[in-house]
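Hi L.,

You mentioned the student needs an example of a multi-chain input paired with its predicted structure. This one should do, with 592 residues in total across all chains.
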Amino acid sequence: MTKWIVTDPQKCTACHRCEIACAMAHHGSCRPELARIRIHRFENPAYNVPVVCMACEDAPCIKVCPVNARVREVNGSVVTNTNRCIGCRACVYICPVASPAVNPFTGQTMTCDLCMDQEDGPWCVVACRVDGALWIDDGDRCSLQSARAQAGRVRSVLYGAPRVRAHKKGHL
Amino acid sequence: MKIVVVGNGIAGNCVAFGMRARSRDHEICILSAEKVPEYDPCALPYFIGGDVPHEAVFRKSIQDYRRHDIDLMLDQRVVAIDPRDRRVTTAQGREVPYDKLVLAHGGQLFIPPIEGIRLPGVFNCKQLDAAKQLREHNGRRAVVIGSGAIGIEVAEALHKKGFQVTVIELLDWVLPALFDRETAQRFEAVLADSGVRVLKSEKVLAVEGNGTVSGVVTDKRRIDCDAVVVATGVVPDKSMAATAGVDTERGINVDRHLQTNVADIYACGDCIETVDSCTGEDVMFQLKHNAIDQAAVVVANLAGEPVSYAGAYAFARVHFGRMHAVSFGKSTLSTQCQLGDLKIVERENGPDYLRLILKDNLIVGGQAIGKFADYAGFFMGAMRRGDDFAYLRRSRASVCSLQNHYRWAQRLIGDITGLC
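Structure written out for the whole complex:
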């Protein structure tokens, strides 16, 4: 990936500007259910997690899609091919953070394409008013690996510490 | 080095193309029993129902093989392997020498020994040819034998095409491998509402017909129909591997590097028996994502990197109409004969349903319908990390830290289930 979105839950205030900007950029509507970024809010202590597709290196959604509609774009993002998607939601269910959103009108899934058609870059980043909560990076401040780790999307985070596992008897 | 891949399925192609992406030096050859380039068997039910056009079923075209310099031999079913001379023989009489052999020929449709099961009008959904026949079949009444994921998907496809569909399940509830009774009952209600007849605890005794199918006889009744679909599962094809002296049990036995006991023979995909990444048990899941993972491991090992396979995982989703459901890990049935403190957590909210199975405070499996299914990834993450919910309950107050990037996911699970 040449550029990636970095999120910082410690800074996010859950103002939802990014969601509205995303829906506007992709659908020309401000309905937050059309956004490809979503904020999970927690209280006591407050913690707001912006969830957006991090285009996992070993993306499970690509592997489970029965009609091969999840494809990796040239810019590194993983998007749903709407000509193929049948709305089975396999990608939503396999995603460790349920990042694909389901379009309420078509039933198809949609994820962040880094606003590849937009001149100004990702609209969510432009819309974010909190310094350091959401930004686009090309390796200056945050490596792709650590951005993914921070968003809970790498193997070490998903699996935790390696556990000792029983293995097949015989030839090892 | 000449790499010969037996099988033109997903695992076989991932090996061949993965190997080609690493190096252009090797000679790579795929032996396919069928006459078409790689297609996706997962898409076949949707192809039958008309959701997916014919060309979208394919994952590769003939040109892709040529462009990547992969020698695709169509219509060559391998029948024997000679590991001493390093050569495979096909049913068509071709002999192909190899330096490294990869067995990725997958499974065969399990055809139950029922009278009349070979009659014209009995279809299956395993291979493209069979799916095409079913798609072109015009009829009014269909019987689906078996209510696994494929059975339900085919039932939906035929229902969409205007068939009156009956699903017959031998066990006590539908999708018995995926669901517990409680989840299955909710699913059955949706099937019944849309007009699909579900017959449980019923055994098919014979398929009747004079020339072509006219009905199905079970131990309880006779059902008129003009099409029967066999969806009773897939069994690995072991006979060919046995000719090389490869160890087999339920499937082909492999070590952690997916190598068989015979030198220079690797195996991956639906034909192997492997370990569950969470429990370490010997399993055969026969799922697409596992085949792709396994192929990557074989490619690394062929290239000389001793990568170990982390294990397979169970994940399946089914849907009917607007109801979406997901199942992961173990079901209650498969945990029944194990030691440990079993706990079932259920949540219900209108049509949405969640059922988590915990053993000794660890999630070992679960099923979800509707809105709860959206959180399946979080539960699977907790299952694979081995999150101890007794510990998490005690440490409820601890804040999310930058060092623990999945603490919020654990809090989310706690908010949904009350487990922590």
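You could point out the following to them. Helices of chain A lie at 17-27, 60-64, 90-94, 123-127, 144-150, 155-159. The first strand of chain A starts at residue 4 and ends at 7.

Best wishes,
N.
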